Amino acid sequence: MNPRPSALLPDIDGCISALSVALGGNGLYTKREDLVRYETGARYGAGQAAFVMRPSSTAEVAVALKICSQHRVTVVPQGANTGLVGASTPDESGQQAVLSLERAASTLQLNHINRSIEVSAGVSLSKLNDFLKSYGLWFPIDLGADPTVGGMIATNTGGTRFIRYGDVRRNVLGLEVVLNDGTTLNFMDQVRKNNTGLDTKQLFIGTGGRFGIVTRAILEVHPLPQNAATALIVPSSPAGALDILVDMEEHFGPQLTSFEGISRTALAAVLVGVPQLRNPFLNEQLPHYSLLVEVSTWTKGGDGNLTLDQALERELERAFEAGKIENAFTQDAANLWSIRHHISDSLKLKGKVIALDVSVPRDRFVQFRDKACEEVKRLADFVLIADFGHLGDGGVHFNMIWPHEVPSDAELVERLRTAVYDLVAAHGGSFSAEHGVGPFNAHYYKRYVPAAKQSLEHLIEEALASRSLGNTLS
After folding, report:
1. N or C: which end of the chain has fewer CB within 10 A?
2. Which GO molecular function entries does the Swiss-Prot or TrEMBL record give (predicted)?
3. Total-model pTM
4. Parallel, antiparallel, or unpaired: how do β-strands 227-235 and 325-329 relate?
């Protein structure tokens, strides 16, 4: 490839000079020792940043982006850097700049009557919920990681309680966004109904910072559950799990908060990797597949004259009598949820994790899972399959574990990924259910996303003049 004309090369030195005046010493890092922690992702190796910007306000974000645009420097927005697709870290060129929103975390303004909160993009999920807890409220995105509000919006995070509360998109009322040239867009609506045209804020939710950087948001918040009941269920068959799901939805309605699936390999990895967790099955053989189910209410009541625990127990008894379940455990909910939340880290102890985050329509889940397991074993019978995830919404973390003792083979890993993604597409699903696209998934985006949709997104990107934002797929 011929080198670009010098006029189009980024002017790193000029950009740093202008930013040092605009942001000050605490808002701009240029020393190598200060850059390192911004260059490494949660699950992948390091890139190299030209410099790191740390604006503390929307105005500083705007001036930083304007200066970078003027000096042709590509910007990579970064929240808590918990993403898994390379979207929040620079590449290896040393020509990209990181814009960290960690200092943009000053606003937490609750509107209790409206059940909404204005929050800065750099506020972490844990800080947000710690603040809301004293008001009996929460932002119900439940994750193993602790991302920022801006990061959750950029990736449209879901989590384990999607079936009840939906994803981030469903819980965003308003946004403030800064475009590449420094233009600030104010969509900070408090209303839940607005039919005055295109819901423009949606362009910036789930698009990974491709169109602009979120600096503030107005989020819908919910009452904290006052009563909850949890069960670990062993279905008579994986296919029977979906019958149980439908039964639970019909009986509990919106009280059904979570419906998670856990494979035997995933469960075994946790019980070995985190030995302090209690094995619900004691000395019994671990089931081929199990379900983690939660029902909850905002009030202290249950189902008529029954407590919520009693109502769940009665529903489990019905399922057992109908032959739909083989076993169920309802004790020690904290232990059961700890098992679920420690799966990802425990899998790393067994080998290199080839982590796929996919979704399919619920009625096609069993067929997809069977075919995917069969295809992986055909291609590499030594690879372990440890799937788990949000069965209630059709999501599954289809993890393949490459044993430490087996030499790496990048070509075979790519064949495995593509084989599973091909099956996802064949079953009407998505190759990225929650994690986003980013550099790691860019070639899958081109392979699986319809050309017409890609073209439309490119037109929007051009119109918003955000080509120098780092997560660009065109």
Report:
1. N
2. FAD binding; oxidoreductase activity
3. 0.91
4. antiparallel
